[in-house]
Amino acid sequence: MSNPTTTARPATPTAVVVRPAQQASSAREPGRIVVIGAGLCGLACADELVRLNHPDWLILEASVGPGGLASSVTDSAGFTWDLGGHVVFSHFGEFDRLLSELFRDDELLRHDRSSFIRYRGRWVPYPFQQHVHCLPVEDAAACLDGLALARRQGRVVGEADFGTWLRATYGSALVERFFGPYNAKVWATAPELMSSSWVAERVAPVDLDQLQAASTARRASRWGPNATFAFPISGATGEISRRLAARLGSRVRTHARVAAVDAAAREVVLAGGERVAYDHLVATGPLDQLTAMTAGAPAGVRAAAGRLRHTTVAMVGLGYRASTTDVRSWMYFPQPDVPFYRATNFSKYAPANVPGSDTRTFSSWMTETSLLEGTRVDHNVLIDSCDRALRRHGLVPAHAPLASAHVEVIPYAYPVPTLSRDAALAEVMPWMEAVGIYPRGRFGAWRYEIGNMDHAVKMGIDVARRLVTGTPEELLTASTVTAAGSRS
User: Fold this and answer.
1) Would the pLDDT of 391 be above 90?
2) Based on the domain organization, do 376 and 439 belong to the same domain?
3) N or C terminus: which one in the chain shows less Cβ crowding within 10 Å?
């Protein structure tokens, strides 16, 4: 992981300062650019600096290899797992261009999304709200009545919490049956404690007239940017970061954990005491940890960063000695008797995710369970619970031998868009940029709505262009840095 830590302390003033000789300058002479974190945002930033012929940069990565949240691991049984559900789709030409440079077309598998929600013993196509005709008759009628009432009452005006927004948009019946329990489960937070400013394309719209005219034969909707997606033929999602880091070379320093940032001196302090000078610092780790480790951050900025909240996710990967026959991509589980909120048919994504690419013999399911920050996880209990749930709901044959069980606990999985998030960002982000620190990426920007892989790459490219050429950032605009409530 590329997260900085707050446990180490700054080295003594006698520590050596690493400050290389001045090299050829770019058009704006931005000086030395240091990047914290070799996730996709940090790697894309460095890659764009190379493209812009800016020679003076360095990536510091705490982990043993690149990737951050987009890493993949192979367990001792030969099953490969991602750190949570990732698929490759894009809003941006820059991300498309990068993929085309890193992969030949035949090195990416293409899929049509096939996703469902488990509800009362049946599979309802995703998005749930567009397929109420697939529900039991009484539930479908209640949901349609609720939608009609919500339409008559009109949308909420002004800022609203997420729970209020959901009820005003979809009606109480849909909220009670799906949106309420699912969102409380995935966020480990009540929707009423979350803002609705992040929604944008993350929550599917619904057309009441179409629903009322729909038949049970209606096909699953193609809504959303991930209706089709790609996946590396081998190496899983982490292969993207590995290939990108490989072409950047030795200036991607691993085992280099940042323990402190001295904003006044423009130096980062590594866990071993080494000091690394910078002119501009692009920080892709968690914003709350970055603020806590930055000397000179005002008390108000520290307090604001301390109000940011995130989820922890336990990824339980379960490999089975049973052939891969299910054609679906992933499934959602709002019910409380299932520990995970999502199960991904990972051997369908790519045969190489199972030993020997042998999907006639093996299958693999990747589950994600959201936890409150700091929750202790009993791996054995969670493995057993996830295994039982997969079998109980028919995703795995009842007597299929379990060939592998692998657990990855991701301490920082998703930034939660709480009611106080935008106000906190509006205080923290401008101060950071005023002292030459640019927090970017899923947890640097702390904005779930721009937290996908393509967003991370775009943020990294944008900030590199801004620092070298002065080009305004397109995704995380000046207005969102100074008033984080507005959406791009």
Assistant:
1) yes
2) no
3) C
Query: Could you give the number of structural domains in the chain?
Result: 3
**Rounded mean pLDDT of the chain?**
88
Q: Is residue 298 very low, low, confident or very high in pLDDT (cuts 50, 70, 90)?
A: very high
Of the given ranges (22-36, 316-330, 420-434, 452-466), which has the lowest mean pLDDT? 22-36
Provide the CB-side half-sphere exposure for 459 (13 A, CA).
Answer: 32
Q: Which of 391, 415, 439 delimits the end of a domain?
A: 415
Task: Specify whether the CB–CB gap between 174 and 146 falls below 8 A.
Answer: yes
Asked whether residue 59 falls in the same domain as residue 192, the answer is no
Give me the mean pLDDT over the 201-225 stretch.
58
The predicted model scores a pTM of 0.88
Task: Name the helix (H) or strand (E) containing 212.
Answer: helix 208-213
The CATH number covering residue 142 comes to 1.10.3110
Q: Are 271 and 252 within one domain?
A: yes
Q: CA 397, CA 321: separation in Å to the nearest integer?
A: 10
368-389 burial: b if 16+ Cβ within 10 Å, else e: bbbbeeeeeeeeeebbebbbeb
- Phi and psi at 175, nearest 5°, equal -65, -45
